[in-house]
Protein 1
Amino acid sequence: MLVGTAQTQVNKVFEIVEEWRLSENIYALRFDTTASKIGWKKGACVQLDNHLKRKLLFFASRYHVFKLSEGAAWKSVFGTSTSPDHTEFKQFQEKNGPHLKTARSN
């Protein structure tokens, strides 16, 4: 897939599901928690659920669930950031970097 929009994802999944005749065998979806997949109204998971005309179990990937909660906590404390370089992380690294390297090597 060249474009990662929800509609592009759904179209490709439908194509494969129909080609392999799997629609009656799908009961759950496991996915990461990117907006294109979990959007409440137009996310890929909701569209798949609607296309199959039955409710599916949704299993969000744990890694991404933690990422969302960490991101929400960061945003509530520091606000929205558009930079990959965060001053707070750099200060932490400068103060604790030598200690962390020592702990990892032991």
Note: The chain has five helices and two strands.
Protein 2
Amino acid sequence: MEGLVGGENTDGASRCVSGTTGRKTLPRIFAQELRGMMYGFGDAVRPSKAAVDMMEEILLDHLFNLVSKTTEVAHIRKRDRPDITDVKFVIRRDRRRTQRVRYLLQMKASIDGATSMKELAMVAGEEVPGAPPKV
């Protein structure tokens, strides 16, 4: 996290999340992805810098609040570090987000399982489906 605090972006501009006190200046780290997402959701091919900055401000504020609440829940549960159960607890009333987190965790488990099976097959010297043939 050290790289996210108190830095500058490639344009030389730094920013601070508004509406908060005590937060450090954060670099613009999501601008490129936000431009693509904004275009995908119907904005111009090159959205204005002000629009991208505003979206990033909203995103950073939301992430900061989510992480703060998650960390607070972890401390209440007498743990030093938050884990996925704390995130699930914080978003428990938002059905859509809860379902999305559940889906992403299932996909992660599926990918991890497939990766480990592929590694086991490679160690055993077996053919791996979808892998290029050995020459």
Note: The chain has two domains: 2-79, 91-125.
Protein 3
Amino acid sequence: MYLIFLQGQAQSVTVADLRNEFVVLEALESQLLATQNFLKPQNILDMYAFLRNSKSFGLLTLYKANSSTNKP
């Protein structure tokens, strides 16, 4: 169990939570590289924060959608 601090609030996370976050970051990186859309780091962080906080956007949905679009 780990503690992270978001907007002044402590929140405990598990290793599984961290792995899911890594999946999101990998999917964002793949999408940006695939579209050759190199954004400023702040824009990438904003997009990541939006996806992470969106209740209607599941992490696995993002991963599956990204995986299916990268197939040859």
Note: The two ends are 38 Å apart (CA to CA).
